[in-house]
């Protein structure tokens, strides 16, 4: 029996329904229809994909550029070095004047400066009021200079005494006693008697110290005049003015030293020895040649 076309369609679609009251016999020729054959034919999935229109490129890929850091994109140009104009130092402003009480060293700076000059006793100097420890600033040639403040006075020092100007210097025995002269050289005795006459209020002295090995005191070539303050300064100044007549070779006072050999340098600072006496703040130390004085 030949199945009509509609039945064939049902069979082709795989429906399980059958026509009623009919015995269906499948015709192999019909089952192998074009529709069924198209389903039975296995088709590659790649064949169903649309072709990729890719054109092979022979050019090398361009390298990717790394963006420059933001802080380098707008870097300011490096300025060219220019010469720095030379500034002229402004002269220090003076606030007053003072006088040197003795020959005073003039320094460029406190402590570490250079010795520039020696100001004679009685020199009028302009001061700024600026101090640095024991140093005072003065104005010299419109420049800042420094001297020891202790050697400056608001009043002009007294004129040189007759004794220092060529008058006589007393060599009479000291009224307070001359026991200190025992063992002293002639120049040391000259110093003792002269000071005793010029400063009769001073009654304490230090002379021979035989056990002081290496010191001028052990040979009678030194005398300590026990005095301090402004009077001590007067004594040191008077001895300095009359050193030739008295045979003085060296003076030490308030941690400063003056010597004949280096007299052009004035009073020179000494190292700190740790005490008032060791630094000669309570006495004037005098060293003599021995017997070279003329009085």
Explain how this protein is built.
This protein is of the alpha+beta class. The protein has three domains: 39 residues, no CATH class; 58 residues, SH3 type barrels (Roll); 110 residues, 2-Layer Sandwich (Muramoyl-pentapeptide Carboxypeptidase, domain 2). It contains eight helices and 13 strands. The strands form three sheets. The chain has a six-stranded antiparallel beta sheet. Strands 6-5-4-1-7 form a five-stranded antiparallel beta sheet, with no helix packed on it. A hairpin with an 8-residue loop joins strand 11 and strand 12. The longest helix has 13 residues. It is elongated, with a radius of gyration of 59 Å. The relative contact order is 0.10. About 7% of the residues have low confidence.
Concise synopsis of the structure shown:
Helix content is 20%, strand content 20%. It is of the alpha+beta class and 295 residues long.
- CATH class membership of the largest domain: Alpha Beta
> Which structural class best describes the helix and strand composition?
alpha+beta
Strand fraction:
15-25%
Shape: elongated
Q: If classified by CATH, what would the architecture of the largest domain be?
A: 2-Layer Sandwich
SSE sequence, one letter per element = HHHHHEEEEEEEHEEHHEEEE
Residue runs with pLDDT of under 50 for 5 or more positions: 6-19, 160-166
| Rg over alpha carbons | 59 Å
Q: How many helices?
A: 8
Count of the domains: 3
Oligomeric form = single chain
The profile of the biggest β sheet is:
6 strands, antiparallel
Strand adjacency order, main sheet: 8-9-13-10-11-12
Helix content: 10-25%
How many angstroms separate the termini?
A: 180 Å
Query: How many distinct beta strands?
Result: 13
Which fold name is given in CATH as the topology of the largest domain? Muramoyl-pentapeptide Carboxypeptidase, domain 2
Mean pLDDT: 80
């Amino acid at each position: 029996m030949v199945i009509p076309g509609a039945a064939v369609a049902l069979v082709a679609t795989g429906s399980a329904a059958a026509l009623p009251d009919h015995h269906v016999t499948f015709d192999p020729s019909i089952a192998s229809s074009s529709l069924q054959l198209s389903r039975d034919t296995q088709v590659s999935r790649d064949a169903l994909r649309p072709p990729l229109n890719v054109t092979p490129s022979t050019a090398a890929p361009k390298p990717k550029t790394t963006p420059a850091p933001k802080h380098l994109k707008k870097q300011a140009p490096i300025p060219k070095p220019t010469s720095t104009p030379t500034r002229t130092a402004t002269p220090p402003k003076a606030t007053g004047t003072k006088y040197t009480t003795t020959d005073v060293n003039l320094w460029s700076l406190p402590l570490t400066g250079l010795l520039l000059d020696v100001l004679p006793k009685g020199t009028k100097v302009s001061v700024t009021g600026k101090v640095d420890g024991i140093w005072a600033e003065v104005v010299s040639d419109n420049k800042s200079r420094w001297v020891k403040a202790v050697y400056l006075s608001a009043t002009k020092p007294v004129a040189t005494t007759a004794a220092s100007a060529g008058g006589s210097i007393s060599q009479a025995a000291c009224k307070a006693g001359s026991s200190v002269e025992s063992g002293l050289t002639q120049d040391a005795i000259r110093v003792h008697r002269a000071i005793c006459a010029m400063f009769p209020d001073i009654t304490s002295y230090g002379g021979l110290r035989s056990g002081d090995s290496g010191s001028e005191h052990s040979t009678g070539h030194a005398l300590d005049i026990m005095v301090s303050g402004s009077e001590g300064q007067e004594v040191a100044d008077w001895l300095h003015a009359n050193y030739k007549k008295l045979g003085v070779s060296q003076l030490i006072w308030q941690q400063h030293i003056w010597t004949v050999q280096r007299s052009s340098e004035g009073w020179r600072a000494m190292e700190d020895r740790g005490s008032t006496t060791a630094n000669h703040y309570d006495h004037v130390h005098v060293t003599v040649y021995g017997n070279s004085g003329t009085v």
